[in-house]
Amino acid sequence: MKSIVKALKEKKILVSDGAWGTFLHKSGLEPGECPELWNITNREKVLNVAQSYIDAGADLILTNSFGGSPQKLKHYELAERTYELNKAAAEISREAAGDDKFVLGSVGPTGVMLMMGEVSEDELLEGFRVQIKGLCDGGIDAVCIETMSDLSEAVLAIKAAKEIPGLEVICTFTFEQTMSGDYKTMMGIAPEEMTAAIIRAGADIIGANCGNGFDQMVEIVSKIRNTDGNIPILVHANAGKPVYADGITIFPETPEEMSPKISKLIDAGANIIGGCCGTTPGHIKAIVKEVSRYR
Question: How far is residue 128 CA from its own chain's centroid?
């Protein structure tokens, strides 16, 4: 496995990829259909997503495995295929990335809550182990535990990943702005609290994704950086705040509107910058252009 932390020491700033779900739905993924099953049934379409971001200049790309936990796959009666679907996801992104670029194994929230007794810690931990083992065997360089809101779940995912020698762990949380102007996850966790707990759990890189556009992410990154001056920070921002029109969710920020905000993110302390909902290869090209000034 290649080291992203080492690459950051050399290049200072790396560029990640953009939205996957948005892209897959445009490629024909139907509402209610399992995205991870497409790694088997529509492999070329998934590969096209990964390849588009490599072609746009991304240094790192994710895998089509965000909902690849057995708890999520259970809804599609696919829990027993957890290892297979995650391994296939990693192999697809590895093919697009080649040997020169990094592949991050995407691990999203399971959708079940420890505090409500819906699942035991042992069951959740074992599920993460199976998912991450599949991703590692498929060729990832690091695991990206993303869109988290519950510290307990995130810590278990980090624990499962750290059982694999040499595997670097990225962990990002999703924050929303409160009425008072603060930022909290849906479980009430602030960026400062997340930073301390996730570093203590062993994450090599931390950050924020989804839920906010690039403007809001500048504030969130500043809070993380003020809490810890050394940990590398990854940001995957949406293409602006979502707008609902005619039953469709639109993320309105264009690459041109986004570009001037990249320098503010870097000044705030971001080390890896990519996109989440609504971002496209066009957005990634624009980020690459801005980041090149800092290299």
Answer: 16
